[in-house]
Each structure stands twice: as structure tokens, then as C-alpha cells.
Amino acid sequence: MHEKDLDTQFQEAYEKASNMTEALPQDVMLRIYAYYKQATGGIAQVNPYQNFDLRNAFKMNAWMQVRHLTPDEAKKLYIETINSIIK
After folding, report:
1. pLDDT value at position 33?
2. Quick one: pLDDT at residue 10?
3. Which residues contact 10 (CB under 8 A, 6 or more apart)?
4. At what angle do helices 26-41 and 71-85 cross, to 10 degrees?
């Protein structure tokens, strides 16, 4: 039996996260968001014409902090974070 590939593990972690009912601390939520965006969206870019409220500013800041990660690195960190929350 071989190990699941990274994309399959990532999708499974996403499904686990989507089904979570407990509230998580804001910093954990932002970290999960940032890893997900980096894993699926590539490099964070600021649109100067976008209307930024405080919530979006925090989300963009979190994403900018992980912009050095490759998509695969972000997927691994996302999976680790979700699996550490759901035991």
C-alpha cells in the first residue's frame, strides 16, 4: 500500500476543515486561510483598487506572511495544521 499523494491528503484535510464545528482562535483561522490561499492561489498580490475592510486586511497580511512558500510546502503545512487540530 502506497502513501496518498499530496493533493489527495490536501483535499482530505480541506474536507475535515470544512466540516469542523468548533470555533478556532483567530490566529489559527488566519494561518489556515493563508496556507490554503498559498497552496491554491499562488503568490499573494495586493489589488490597490480593492475595497479593504479590516477583516480582509488581516487575511491578506496572513497570506503575505507565507508568500515565500511553494504551493506544495503550503499544502503540507495546511495538512499538518488541520491534523493537529482534529485529533
Report:
1. 95
2. 97
3. 39, 75, 78, 79
4. 150
For the chain, the residue count is 87
Domain ranges of the chain: 6-85
The single-letter DSSP state of residue 43 is: S
Closest CA to 29 of 67, 75, 53, 63: 63
> Taking the chain (87 residues) in consecutive chunks of 10 residues, what is each chunk's mean pLDDT?
83 95 93 96 69 82 94 97 91
Measured distance CA(48)–CA(39) in Å, rounded: 23
Instruction: Give the orientation angle of helix 26-41 with respect to helix 6-18, to 10 degrees.
Output: 140
- In whole angstroms, give the CA distance from residue 82 to residue 64: 20
Give me the CATH topology for the region 6-85: Acyl-CoA Binding Protein (1.20.80)
Where would I find the H helices in 2-86?
6-18, 26-41, 54-65, 71-85
